[in-house]
Amino acid sequence: MAALTQSQEQTLARFASGSDRLRAALRDVPDSAFDLSLEPGEWSIRQIVHHLSDDGVTWCMALRKALATPGVPIRFEGFPGNEAWANALGYDRLPIQPALALIAAHGEVIAQLMRHFPDKWDGYVTAIDPAGGAEQKVTAGDMIGFLGEHFDEHIKVIEAIMQRHKVQHLQVNEQIRKLGGANVDIDLATPPEQIAWLQAKCPWNEAERTDQHRCAVKNVSICQYFRGVEPLDTLLCGYPPSL
Ligand code: SF4
Predict the structure, then answer these.
(1) Which of 1, 91, 206, 241 is deepest in the core (most CB within 10 A)?
(2) pLDDT in tens, 163-222
(3) Distance 205 CA to ligand 1 centre (A)
(4) Residue to substitute in 184, 204, 221, 233 for testing ligand 1 pocket (most ligand atoms within 8 angstroms of CB)
(5) 202 secondary structure, DSSP code
(6) What are phi and psi of 74, to 5 degrees?
(7) Is the CB–ligand 1 distance for residue 213 below 6 Å?
(8) Of 164, 182, 210, which one is at a domain's C-terminal end?
(9) Which residue pairs from 228-231 have beta carbons closer than 8 angstroms and sit at least 24 positions apart in sequence?
(10) Which value, in Å, is the radius of gyration of the alpha carbons in the chain?
């Protein structure tokens, strides 16, 4: 029985992992983050997810045609462009969970078909330019390749958005272990120009107009008012001392 070549397997694996990679990028991200974008006016995470979901809607049927009825013409008539399409379909406000489920389902169906019919990798459809331009042969393998690239491209943008806005994964279902004896440096006295985030000020340093007090200094000391840390980086401080 025919099998996919190693290169075809790699192309398929990149595509087939797209849904999981996308979900991993969005794992335990607060809903409020879905409306963030890299720059004002650029697509938000929510819009990108709906855009990727439409990939599956569009290309799943084209791929089935390439396998079942090779050579048939397909037309994308009346497509107004990505922006107008996204606006008309409410990409900017619809919940993303159904779109993520659709992405996963299309990914599974497409991967299943290609593994079941490896000899049809070169099956193709003929894309007809509705404006009368040249016809283009698009093989099933082409589709798997550009859909995988499309995942990569947009997952990178989502990660860049999260990094730009310092979005943290909440990890609400994560099991937290409490382990004693850590030996770390913790302070609230780093000069602001040396860090890229906002840092509260040590009230003891503030009271004494100094920067000498440190919460924990590796191998040296722990402040008498240090009461621990809450996820992710909230310091529990007992200063000033109770009377
Ligand atoms: S534990 Fe509180 S008082 Fe002590 S160094 Fe840290 S912030 Fe300052």
Answers:
(1) 91
(2) 988 887 776 566 767 777 778 889 898 888 787 677 889 999 999 999 999 999 988 899
(3) 8
(4) 204
(5) P
(6) -130, 145
(7) yes
(8) 164
(9) 229/186, 231/171, 231/176
(10) 26
